[in-house]
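Posting here for the record, re: nicotinamide-adenine-dinucleotide.
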Amino acid sequence: MIRLGIIGAGRIGKVHCESIGRYVKDAVVACVADPFMNDETEKIVRSFGAQKVCKDYREILDDKTIDAVLICSSTDTHAKISIEAIEAGKHVFCEKPVDHDLAKIEQVKKALEGSKLKYQVGFNRRFDHNFEAVRDAISSGRIGHLDVLKICSRDPGAPSVDYIKVSGGIFLDMTIHDFDMVRFLSGDEVESVYAVGGVTVDKAIGEAGDIDTAIVTMKLKGGTLAVIDNCRRATYGYDQRAEAFGALGQVAISNDCKSSAVISDADGVTAEKPLYFFLERYMQAYVKEISEFVRCIREDMPVPVGIEDGLQAVAIGLAAKKSLATGAPVKL
Ligand SMILES: NC(=O)c1ccc[n+]([C@@H]2O[C@H](COP(=O)([O-])OP(=O)(O)OC[C@H]3O[C@@H](n4cnc5c(N)ncnc54)[C@H](O)[C@@H]3O)[C@@H](O)[C@H]2O)c1
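Prediction output follows.
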């Protein structure tokens, strides 16, 4: 049994706690740490099977019975806690992004040099059944040379402005999943990025120095053209689609819904809305990503999403930020 410690009991910390407690075999949540741990959070994480809670994550790092940690705290703590966890001999699963600063991610890379510890980054969409199907269609050669890759990624609603202020901006917080998806689906690297953005959802997001709507176009090294469209508000739910168009054909995925029922009557034809947000849409992917992390520890295998993937996605995000600021395409 692999004993896991979860650091950070906010939105995603609770999601992982639930997914491990309910669905991940061969692993147990030994402890959950959060400086704001209270009775309510303790009750929730214990209901998912967490054995212990504490306020200081160093208790987890000092516990010799814990094999690995999941870093689910706010982004500004990831690099520091990663390095401390590696020094304490723990395998690490770190939520995206590893940091907003490439130099800090390099420091984590350095701390891992020569170590046999596993370090996986939380790009959960790689484990989603729909995105896996697109990747398989591309990598098997079924659609031929990939000419155009389109990713649509829209949240049902914007996070709080307090979250926006420390998020690193839309490209490092939200689009980062899509940048990773471009690399994952195409199997290629980004050569140049051009970004445009606006504030169409909430003026307060603009006042906090961010945008809430964006279009990013990219040229990949193998000649593919890619486009991502993002918005922090989709009235009908979490809009997560992709289309890959190639020399031999096309592959597209649509949203997952609660059911495939379509009701037709005198008023029209109505189908279910997409599942509401990441918790509903990606639970299966969260289970699979942590199951893979646990398997890599147990069987001493390389992790499916490593520190280099974490670094590349941030590099593309920073290039998009620069492009938005300068109004010009940016080469990586
Ligand atoms: N992969 C995904 O789908 C996904 C989804 C949401 C968030 N995230 C990422 O997860 C991270 C957390 O996001 P969230 O939405 O859960 O935020 P959140 O604000 O809901 O939770 C963060 C938690 O971390 C705690 N925390 C802060 N400093 C800590 C420390 N030193 N030790 C322990 N806990 C600490 C806070 O008290 C808070 O409870 C972010 O980096 C975000 O980008 C990933």
